[in-house]
Write a structure and sequence with these properties.
The chain has about 140 residues and is an alpha+beta fold. The chain has a single domain (about 10-120), classed as PH-domain like, CATH 2.30.29. The protein is built from three helices and seven strands; from the N terminus they run αβββββββαα. The longest helix is centred in the last third of the chain and has 30 residues, at about 95-125. It is elongated. The two termini are about 35 Å apart. Residues about 1-5 have low confidence and may be disordered. One of its GO terms (cellular component) is membrane.
């Protein structure tokens, strides 16, 4: 499945999100985030967008622990190496957890289709496979 550069880099959501810091005090830090079809980019500086972290969707296992309080929606992104990253966003206008979850599902579906097509192409390329398939048919 070949995707064009515009499909790969399509921006799904852009805005501010708060990330809990990894240090001992665990302060909430405001970050500028850009969600694309293949990654979540997290920038500390809203103006320059330099020195950002890229969290690829392939390294995200799930979006977990969604909790709504009066002002915020809290959620956790669990990576494939079981690292947990905590986020929060204001509940009124931002549904970051839902958009990230839908982007993750879309990515996983595209990957599954790509894997299926690759497996199908590999099976059709091997000459004995067609004969075995015909032998099973009634």
């Amino acid at each position: 499945m070949k995707m064009s550069a515009s499909e790969i880099c399509q921006v799904l959501k852009e805005g501010e999100l708060e990330k809990r810091s990894d240090n001992l005090l665990q302060f909430w830090r405001r970050k500028t985030c850009v969600l694309t079809t293949d990654s979540l980019n997290i920038y500390a500086d809203t103006q320059k967008r330099s020195k950002g972290k890229e969290l690829k969707l392939q390294s995200i296992k799930k979006v977990d622990c969604v909790e709504r309080t009066g002002k915020f929606v809290y959620f956790t992104i669990v990576t494939t190496d079981n690292k947990e990253i905590d986020f929060r966003c204001s509940g009124e206008e931002n549904c970051w957890n839902a958009v990230i979850t839908m982007a993750l599902i879309d990515y996983q579906n595209r990957k599954a289709i790509e894997d299926f097509k690759t497996r199908q192409d590999t099976e059709s390329a091997s000459p004995g496979q067609q004969e075995r398939r015909m032998a099973r048919a009634p």
